[in-house]
Amino acid sequence: MARSETISLQNSMPASENTAVEAVHLEEPASREWESSRKRAMVLVGSGLLQLPIWGFAMSYGVFQEYYSSNWTLEGSQSATGVIGTTTNGVMYLSMPFLFALFTKRWARYRQVAAVCGAVVSCLSFLLSSFSTHVWHLIATQGVLAALGCALVYSPTTLSLGEWFHTSSGGSRRSSNNRAVAYGVVFSCKNIVGSVCPFIVRGLLDRFDFRTTLRIWMAVTAGTAILGIFMVPTHPSAISAATHPRGRKIPWQFLRHRTFYVYAVAIVLQSCGYGIPQTYLNTYAHEVTLLSQTSATLLLTLFNIPGIASSSFFGYLSDNKRFVLSATTVTAISAVSSALAAFLFWGLTSQGSMALLVLFSVTFGFFAGGYSATWGGLLNELEREAAARNEPVDSGVLYGLLNGARGVGYVSGGLAAVPLLRAGSESGGIGGFGYRSEYGPLIVFTGLSSVFGGWGVMWRWRCTSRL
Q1: Radius of gyration, alpha carbons of the chain
Q2: Any stretches that span the bilayer, and where are they (predicted)?
Q3: What is the tens place of the pLDDT at every residue in 227-282?
Q4: Which end of the chain is more exposed for a tag (fewer CB within 10 A), N or C?
Q5: Cα 227 to chain centroid, rounded
Q6: What gap in Å lies between CA 368 and CA 277, rounded to an integer?
């Protein structure tokens, strides 16, 4: 029907019918907006639930580490178990750049299938780990195989989360650009997992052995992973882009610019030290400060609890429109504060000094735990630079590479921790402040790597002063 005929037909309608037609047209965008908001809420809840099967074991490994040191029944070097925690995180993060690049465009429609496969791999790895007789069995199953499965769950679902909170809403003109806030909320759920799981694992290990505990954890992983995966569907925009040959190409122009490498190096440095307290704080509290197993487990929980608030807080700072802070400033706040916590609180602890260790766990957990929530701001800044140069950029690939940088830091920190711990035992031994114990070199290394995680603000200041 021609436009003139439509107008004349509408003019010939009674006023009541015209009002009804207008109401229908107004209700359609509103219903689409409500449906899109409902889907985003479901995606957010599902992403939060998935933090349990993805990060629950890695963030509770310190409890397993303390259990292995007290109940060693395997063949091989007992000290090698300290590598498992950092290896788990390192393998997960190192695989993410490849998985993010794979599922951001070409294989976007297979994201949920891949996540289910990852859950199956994780469950099988925990089952196989329960039959371990040698330490290398634990490293292979818990440190490598389970990590690869968890990364296969994390990468496609996180890509979908970013797209649901960084695209137009259901065909309306309104847009959802709260990606940093959404990441912050999910990271808060991750820290809830890290706060609760150590006590669950401690209770299971006290009642059963580690083999039965791993089998129970396999069942928990299976149930929560499958439910969470089907709550995070792939965004329609990713599926439609994958059907076009041009949409399958990933833009790599950002690799020519210095800003990306500044942020990547900062993440590597910060991650070198961040994984060390997660692995050794529980054992340190039991051996050096002579705390009970329950108190040591409480410290690991206190290490993760502040991240519930700090992830949302730093995510808000990165997206804040009223009091605007640059991405480098927000990362520097996190890095410098966590370094001070390591130097002043962890380093000065002595036998029986529960208060200082609690203070360290809370402050370091808050500021270091919120560091990854600043990545939403980093992505926004990199996207603005790409827009200023009129260059395309894929935020999913960027986010995957930042995770890869964190994996390099985790692995490097884990490999450095073993000789540092050996050097501390040869020169110091148990006794005195934390600096004088065998963990002294680890404490110094944690503080230094944390503070250098905020070096981007110095680079930004230097560039500004040249202008």
Answers
A1: 25
A2: 41-63, 83-103, 110-129, 135-159, 180-201, 216-239, 260-276, 296-317, 324-348, 354-376, 397-421, 441-461
A3: 999 998 888 777 666 555 555 577 888 888 888 888 889 999 999 998 888 878 87
A4: C
A5: 20
A6: 11
Summary mean pLDDT of the chain: 81
**Residue that is written with structure tokens 């000290």 in the block:** 79
Measured over the CA atoms of residue 241, residue 229, residue 200 and residue 65, the dihedral's sign is negative
Q: pLDDT tens, 4-61?
A: 444 444 454 455 445 544 444 445 566 667 667 788 889 999 999 999 999 999 888 8
How far is C-alpha 26 from the chain's CA centre?
A: 40
User: Residue 272: how many CA atoms within 13 Å on its side-chain side?
Assistant: 25
Spatial CA neighbour of 364 closest among 453, 457, 460: 453
Contact 373, 240 (CB under 8 A): no
Q: For residues 10-37, b (16+ Cβ closer than 10 Å) or e, as one string?
A: eeeeeeeeeeeeeeeeeeeeeeeeeebe
* Bridge partners (DSSP) listed for residue 134: 75
Distance CA(363)–CA(307), nearest Å, equals 10
Q: How far is CA 265 from CA 255, 259, 260, 333, in A?
A: 13, 10, 9, 17
